[in-house]
Amino acid sequence: MAGVLMLAGMTACAQTARGVVQDTKQNTAAVRGAVETVDVKTAIIADKTIDSGAIDVDTYQDKKVVVLRGSVPTEAQKQKAGQIAKENASSYTIDNQLAVVPK
After folding, report:
1. Angle value at C-alpha 14, between 26 and 17, nearest 5 degrees
2. DSSP 58-101
3. What confidence score (pLDDT) does residue 36 get?
4. 3-class DSSP state for residue 21?
5. Which end of the chain has a smaller Cβ tally under 10 Å, C or N?
6. Structurally, how many domains does the chain consist of?
7. Per-residue confidence at 103, pLDDT binned at 50, 70, 90?
8. Rounded CA gap, 35 and 29, in Å?
9. pTM score of the predicted model
10. Contact between residue 40 and residue 84 where contact means Cβ atoms under 8 Å apart
11. What are phi and psi for residue 64, nearest 5 degrees?
């Protein structure tokens, strides 16, 4: 009986340890994605040639994709925002979905 309880306890500890490792990996990925989002958004805001008020930046760490959504008034601003995203998230694919909506 004691052997069965010990085996059950060891199995539970192994499952818990695997769960902690998995949770840690998921949390680390989420933090990395958030850092990329902040880096890209900050760089776009800092560029005064871009009207960034309607730009949203989302990062999908699991797919290594940064998505730009929203609108800008010119095609040149759309292209510039995409370029800035590439420069600030170089290991990510950039999906530039910005719409050009003239003011």
Report:
1. 30
2. EEETTTTEEEEEEEESSHHHHHHHHHHHHHHSTTSEEEE--EE-
3. 84
4. helix
5. N
6. 1
7. confident
8. 10
9. 0.70
10. yes
11. 60, 50
pLDDT digits (tens, 9 = 90+) for 35-64: 889 999 999 999 999 999 999 999 998 999
Give the whole-angstrom CA distance, residue 71 versus residue 98: 5
How far apart CA 87 and CA 63 sit, in angstroms, is: 18
Local structure of residue 31 (DSSP, 8 states):
H
* CA dist., res. 77 & res. 57, Å (int): 15
62 is in which domain, residue-wise?
Answer: 2-100
Residues 6+ apart with CB under 8 A from 63: 93
User: What amino acid occupies position 1?
Assistant: M
